[in-house]
Amino acid sequence: MKVMEAILNRRSIRRFTDKPIAKEDITSLLRAAMMGPTARNCQEWEFVVVRDKATFKKITSVHPYAQMLAQADCAIVVCGNTQREHAPGYWMADCGAATQNILLAATALGIGSVWLGVYPNQDRMDGLSAILGLPPHVKPLNIIALGYPNEKKEEVDRFDPAKIHLEKW
Ligand SMILES: Cc1cc2nc3c(=O)[nH]c(=O)nc-3n(C[C@H](O)[C@H](O)[C@H](O)COP(=O)(O)O)c2cc1C
């Protein structure tokens, strides 16, 4: 799939089939993540790959909008290692770029995905950190739920010329 096609076809998928995702495909998603840009090339990302249904259940108890994990085959928790970032706050941008790479790579592989926001909600961050045993300097940005799609999204075109400001506001 061409990059533009993946960008235009990516949608949040919240219903999944039982088909498991091959380990090599998970590795491809993580390879895509780690090709993202980072400030000063710090690459301060860390990824927790979760496939244990019992852990999914625990996560839904600390994240109110993550119920689709019950059907997901895999989740990648994208975290920032604040001991390695270029300057305070860069981890969010860097890990956001890595996240988008995962979402686009998943689309290209026919895998459905949805970004479940964690940062900056302190309760979700604390709850998730406790469940996954994250050290204090490692901050969870989001959870990406993954699985083969069991829903079809209508095509949308969000292009809006009113959002574009030429030369000045
Ligand atoms: C920062 C962020 C947090 C999000 N959190 C959730 C979430 O907790 N649960 C969920 O189902 N979707 C979540 N989403 C997905 C958005 O709802 C979705 O991207 C948006 O509605 C646009 O739809 P699309 O992804 O299909 O284009 C989140 C997306 C972002 C970028």
What can you see in these coordinates?
α1 crosses α4 (90-108), α2 packs across α4 and α3 packs antiparallel against α5 (122-132). The protein is built from five helices and four strands; from the N terminus they run ααβαβαβαβ. Helices cover 34% and strands 18% of the residues. A four-stranded antiparallel beta sheet has the order 1-2-4-3, with helices on both faces. It is globular. It has a single domain (3-150), classed as NADH Oxidase (3-Layer(aba) Sandwich). It has 169 residues and is α+β, with helices and mostly antiparallel strands. The mean pLDDT is 98. The termini are far apart. The chain binds flavin mononucleotide. Flavin mononucleotide is lined by residues 11-12, 14, 65, 114-117.
Secondary structure: number of strands: 4
State the CATH superfamily name. NADH Oxidase
- Which strands sit side by side, in order, in the main sheet? 1-2-4-3
Question: Which small molecules are bound?
Answer: flavin mononucleotide
Helix content: 25-40%
Low-confidence stretches: none
Major beta sheet summary: 4 strands, antiparallel
In the CATH scheme, what's the topology name?
NADH Oxidase
Mean pLDDT: 98
* SSE series: HHEHEHEHE
Please report the first level of CATH classification, the CATH class: Alpha Beta
Q: What is the count of structural domains?
A: 1
CA-atom Rg in angstroms: 16 Å
Give the amount of beta strand, in percent: 15-25%
| Helix count, DSSP H or I runs of 4 or more residues | 5
Instruction: Give the helix/strand class.
Output: alpha+beta
CATH architecture heading: 3-Layer(aba) Sandwich
Shape: globular
Spatial gap, N to C terminus:
36 Å
